[in-house]
């Protein structure tokens, strides 16, 4: 990873941001702490000066002038480095004892530069000037300790800040490098998807962190997308394949008519057949478009609460005579009030397709029973017959567009009835299932109950 790339890593920037924040907090905390400490030390220094002053002042009260001068001279001799300075004057202003220059100092507290006192040091003195009996006494204490401490604290802070910054940069680089690996793999997968390979998936670690959760969600979407694209590809291939036969038939009819006309013969029969064939093709396309329109979900907007029992009863009534003509019995077993949210026209069409199938694909003598019941929290609508049924391995396939069982190839129809039922079921969030009625076929649709009823 190049240093310039580092800056583009959110992890690195986050680590640096946290470091700068900590640094700011450190500066503020150190500033406050340092201020408090300085005040404390200054107060102690003043207390020490006051203590020395008082000790000498007491001598002035108890003893005579010689004792007082001795009390000042003793510490002067004991500390030739002059950490403490003294200046004792008598009432006339004459200097009696001192270890500094003969300077006039203001009464009370003051901070005086060492140069002014003629002491060869860089640190100023904290000085108190007051009266000791009839004398004027100045006592001062060097600021050296305070300054040294200030330097130590500032030095320590500088090191701490530098260390924190370097540690943050190191952690940032480390995290960015660890992330880089995962992101590179995710980027590669995304590139493959962009190039049309929908089987590519984002890598998922066993850490289960937020990146993994996002990757899982993206992978799930990719799986769904892959499924839909594959289904669409399959549908297009099926449609192209299945429409070749009627188009070929149409072509043959037209060629036959052309040949007959060329021979001066009547082509009425072939042209009529060609017309019928074109009607069938147009009908197929209309049905395909209708399924596509249902699948788009637009009809969901017009859903209304409706009673599935009444709806099924009406459909059964319409088909009762047709079944009877085919030598079959169409019975409505139970149709209690069952309210669902749905599209009346589409649901009628769906049930009609199922009943029509039973009539068309089952022999005379078949008993067709319809009913509405409950299945757990859902409402179940069913259409069963005692016909030949559909083998288990074909049950998924008959739901595809244009798919018909081999034995039904000769019967009327184009294999779109169940595809429409499936689309209607999906639109209504209903679970569609084809099972064995032993003998015969059982088709069930389980609807969610109406939320508005
Ligand atoms: N009740 C049934 N019993 C036996 N086979 C059935 C039954 N219903 C459907 N099938 C089989 O499933 C196939 C697909 O049914 P679908 O309703 O999709 O098409 P279709 O009835 O052939 O034509 P269309 O409904 O478009 O007029 C049928 O061709 C038939 O082979
Ligand atoms: Mg059908």
What can you tell me about this protein's structure?
The protein is an alpha+beta fold. It has 3 domains: 3-147, Beta-Lactamase; 210-295; 302-448, Heat Shock Protein 90, CATH 3.30.565.10. The protein is 55% helix and 17% strand. It has 9 helices and 12 strands. The protein has helices at residues 3-6, 10-62, 65-78, 144-194, 210-262, 268-295, 308-325, 344-361, 417-427, and strands at residues 84-89, 95-98, 108-112, 125-132, 135-142, 304-307, 329-335, 339-342, 367-375, 378-385, 431-436, 441-448. Helix 5 (210-262) packs antiparallel against helix 6 (268-295) and helix 6 runs parallel beside helix 9. The longest helix has 53 residues, at 10-62. The two termini are 62 Å apart. The model has no long low-confidence stretch (mean pLDDT 91). Bound molecules: adenosine-5'-triphosphate (ATP) and magnesium ion (MG). Residues 353, 357-358, 360-362, 385, 387-390, 398, 404-405, 408, 413-419, 441 line the site of adenosine-5'-triphosphate.
Write the layout of secondary structure elements.
Blueprint: H1 3-6, H2 10-62, H3 65-78, E1 84-89, E2 95-98, E3 108-112, E4 125-132, E5 135-142, H4 144-194, H5 210-262, H6 268-295, E6 304-307, H7 308-325, E7 329-335, E8 339-342, H8 344-361, E9 367-375, E10 378-385, H9 417-427, E11 431-436, E12 441-448
Bound molecules: adenosine-5'-triphosphate (ATP) and magnesium ion.
